[in-house]
Amino acid sequence: MSLSSCCVKGFQWGGTPTGRVEKLLGKDTYVAGDNPDAAILYIHDILGWTFPNNRLLADHLAREAKATVYVVDFFDGEIVPTELILTGQWDKIDLPGIQKRHSREIREPEIFACAKALRQKYKKLGAIGYCYGGWAVFRLGAKEHNPPLVDCISTGHPSLLTNKDIDEVAVPVQLLAPEFDPMYTDELKSHTFDTLPKLKVEFDYRYFPGVEHGGLVRGDETKAGERIAMARAKDAAVGWFNQFLHEL
Description:
Layout: E1 20-24, E2 27-32, E3 38-43, H1 52-64, E4 68-72, H2 82-86, H3 95-101, H4 104-121, E5 124-130, H5 133-140, E6 152-156, H6 163-167, E7 173-180, H7 186-199, E8 203-212, H8 215-218, H9 226-244
C-alpha cells in the first residue's frame, strides 16, 4: 500500500500554537504541556511536525488530557510546503519519494527509541498517530514489547497499516474512522473487527459518516460536517487518554 493525494489535502485553522521546541534524542520536537507523570507521543502525518494543525491538536491534547505531548520530527527536517497543500498542487509533492525516504523500515527504530526514552521519564505513556502515524502507533502497541512501550494507542484514518500490525497489538486501541478512506480499507476494517475481540484488548471505534481521509486533522470548515467531526474525534481521543493515563 502506498500513500495517496488524500493524505496531503490540507486546511489551516486559525490560532497560534502555544508549545515550545525542544530536542528528544537529538530530534527537533514540539512539546506542549508540562505534566511530569503522563505523556503522549504524537506521530505526525506526512504534513510534518511543523504543520499548524498538528501542533494545535497537540496543544488541545496537552490541556484537555492533562499530559505532556511530544510531536517529534520523524522526517529529519523534510517539510511538505504548506502553500502546496493549501492550494492543492499535488503534482508538485513527491509522495513516492516521501514514502521511500521515510519508510516504515527506516523510521520504526527511531520511533521506538523515542517511545523508550519517554517511557523511562513518565509513569504513563500513550501514543496517537494520524494518517502516516497510524501504522507506527500499532507497532508501538505490539506484543513484542515486554514490558509494554505504551499504555494505549489512538489513531485517525491510519495509513500503511497491515493485517499483521492489527494481529500483534497488545494494548487498548482507539480507531477514529472517516467513512471515505482508501487507506484504511473495508478489508482492514473487517480484519480489525474480527481480530481485536479475540486478542482481548479494549477497543474503541468511532465512525464519522460523510468525512474523508485526512479530515480529522484538516477540519476544513468549508466541507460539510468535517470541522465538527474533527472536534468530536479530538474529544474522543482526549477521553481515551484520560481513561488510561490517569488513575481513576
